[in-house]
Amino acid sequence: MPSSSIKGKSVVIIGGTAGIGLATAQAAAAAGAKVWVAGRSESHIEKAKLAAQGAFEVRQADTHDAESLKALFDEVGTIDHLVSAAVGGERTLKPFLEQTEEQFKAAYDKLWGYAKVVRTGAPYLATDGAVTLVSGSPARKIRPAQSPLSCVGASVENLVRCLAVEMAPIRVNVVSPGTVDTAMFDAMGDAKEANLAAMTTSHLIPRAGTSEEVADGILFVMQNRFVTGTTVDVDGGRILS
Ligand SMILES: NC(=O)c1ccc[n+]([C@@H]2O[C@H](COP(=O)([O-])OP(=O)(O)OC[C@H]3O[C@@H](n4cnc5c(N)ncnc54)[C@H](OP(=O)(O)O)[C@@H]3O)[C@@H](O)[C@H]2O)c1
Description:
single chain; alpha/beta; Rossmann fold; 40% helix; 17% strand; binds NADP nicotinamide-adenine-dinucleotide phosphate
C-alpha cells in the first residue's frame, strides 16, 4: 500500500510552537494538512503565529493539563495525526549520584506529559490515525551526566512499542533526534554556535541537525502506512560515533 498523503488530514502537534514541532507544522501545512500547534508560553505562541502566517492554527496547551488538551482536541474533532514534540520536563545534566531524587524524577515529566497527550487524545483519533512522539539519541547513546535524558528517552521509546501493540490499527512511532539547533539551546547565548559545533564534532555527520531535517523524519512515519512501533533516528549518526 503506498504512503498516504497528509493533504486534507488533521494534524495536531503539542510542543509545536518552536523548534522541531514548529518545523513539522510548517512541513505538514506545506503538504496540504490542516494543522494545529500548541505550547505553553505566550512568547513561543506569538513567534509561532508569525511563522504560521495563517497557514496553521496556534493554541495554548500544556502536556500536563488535560483540560487544555481536551479544549484543543474538541476544537479539532477527529484527529488523523497526533504528534507530541514537547520537552515537558526539567533535566539536570549531572552524574546520577550527584542529583537529588527530585531532580531525577523531574526529567520523567516528559514521559508523563506524552502519556497524558495520548490518553486524552486517543478518543479523538481516526481509526486509521497515527501517533508520533519524539525521544532523543541519549536514549541509546550513553554518555556521563545524561542519565535523565537517557532514561526518559528510552521510556518514551518503550511506551511507543507498547502503544503500537495495544492501539493497532492506529500506528504509533517515535522519532529520535540527535543534537539539533533549536531554542532548547538558546540559554547558551552567544556561545551556542561554538558549543553546538563542539558537541557534534565527533558525530558521523559532524554538525548540528536542523529542525527541518527532524521534521522530515516525523512526516515519514506519519505518511508511511507500513510503519508502526518503530524508532526512526535522525541524528547524524550520533549513536554510532
Ligand atoms: N534539540 C535537540 O538537540 C534535541 C535532541 C534530542 C531530543 N530532542 C527532543 O525533541 C523534542 C523537541 O525539542 P526542540 O529542540 O524542538 O525544543 P524547543 O525548541 O525547546 O521546542 C519545544 C516546544 O515544546 C513546547 N513545550 C515544552 N514543554 C511543553 C509542555 N509541557 N506542554 C506543551 N508544550 C511544551 C515549547 O513551548 P513552551 O515552552 O512555550 O511550552 C516548544 O514549542 C523534545 O522532546 C526534545 O527533548 C531535542
